[in-house]
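In the design runs reported in the main text, the only information available to the sequence generator was the tokenized backbone. The following block is the verbatim input for one such run; it is reproduced so that readers can re-run the procedure and compare outputs position by position.
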């Protein structure tokens, strides 16, 4: 999955979008945002390096994270064979329709038990959502998934919403538009030799201002984020082709094999060659 500002649309038969994550592979998702409110539920295993608006989390089985609308977030998980997780995206238009004061609310990020078994009820509902999505009766499944989704939203609003005290990190349409433009350009030019001064000049900004702006809103430096874009491209080639490490490094914009290996090990905790062999042993695809 590769996006910066992601447009979330509902699935055809239910008013939310959902993804059930079962691959053990450690596919990284660089920092991005979307208007939709997102629920991340770890049913089995764990998710490491889950970043949400300046805070990092590691989940275990049963943990629920909420990503508020326009919150910048990313995932850099490690390989884990037993992992199973669910992501549900509530489109903002749907939230506005059913929670009229949604613009004045924000949801707790890491959910804990508050009262009346609220957390365990949510865990049961989300586990049922996964079961129904995977093996439900054709024709009735969408009805049950919709009912579960409404129950989940009700519990979140009742027990886990608070009055919004501060805006999310990305606060204006101007900033959203500029970040989208910058990262779209970086994704198109990742294979080229890019310096901060080159990027700043392209957007008619001074390198100093450009660097501060990017770091403030994205949490990474410009070059760190560029490395993540290159790493995502390289990861796809590594697991889906037999291209040499040298070819992958140079075609994805890394100056040399050593630089590629350094960045890869920082995120995936092993060399590209070892990761490729591990993937082959588990028949991984992404």
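Verbatim output:
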């Amino acid at each position: 999955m590769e996006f910066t500002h992601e447009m979330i649309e509902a699935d055809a038969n239910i008013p939310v979008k959902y993804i059930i994550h079962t691959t053990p592979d450690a596919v990284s998702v660089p920092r991005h945002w979307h208007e939709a409110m997102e629920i991340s539920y770890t049913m089995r295993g764990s998710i490491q390096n889950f970043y949400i608006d300046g805070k990092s989390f590691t989940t275990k089985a049963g943990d629920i994270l909420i990503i508020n609308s326009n919150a910048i977030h990313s995932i850099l998980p490690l390989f884990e064979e037993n992992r199973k997780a669910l992501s549900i995206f509530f489109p903002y238009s749907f939230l506005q329709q059913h929670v009229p004061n949604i613009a004045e609310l924000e949801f707790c990020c890491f959910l804990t038990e508050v009262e009346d078994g609220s957390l365990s009820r949510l865990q049961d509902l989300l586990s049922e959502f996964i079961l129904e999505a995977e093996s439900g009766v054709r024709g009735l499944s969408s009805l049950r998934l919709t009912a579960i989704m409404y129950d989940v939203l009700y519990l979140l609003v009742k027990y886990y919403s608070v009055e919004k005290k501060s805006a999310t990190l990305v606060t204006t349409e101007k900033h959203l538009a500029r970040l989208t433009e910058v990262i779209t350009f970086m994704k198109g030019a990742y294979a080229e030799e890019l310096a901060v001064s080159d990027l700043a000049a392209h957007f008619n900004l001074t390198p100093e201002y450009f660097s501060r702006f990017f770091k403030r809103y994205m949490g990474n430096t410009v070059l760190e984020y560029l490395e993540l874009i290159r790493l995502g491209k390289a990861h796809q080639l590594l697991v889906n082709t037999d291209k040499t490490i040298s070819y992958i490094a140079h075609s994805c914009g890394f100056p040399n094999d050593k630089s590629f290996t350094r960045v890869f090990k920082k995120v995936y905790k092993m060399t590209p060659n070892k990761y490729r062999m591990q993937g082959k042993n588990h028949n991984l695809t992404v």
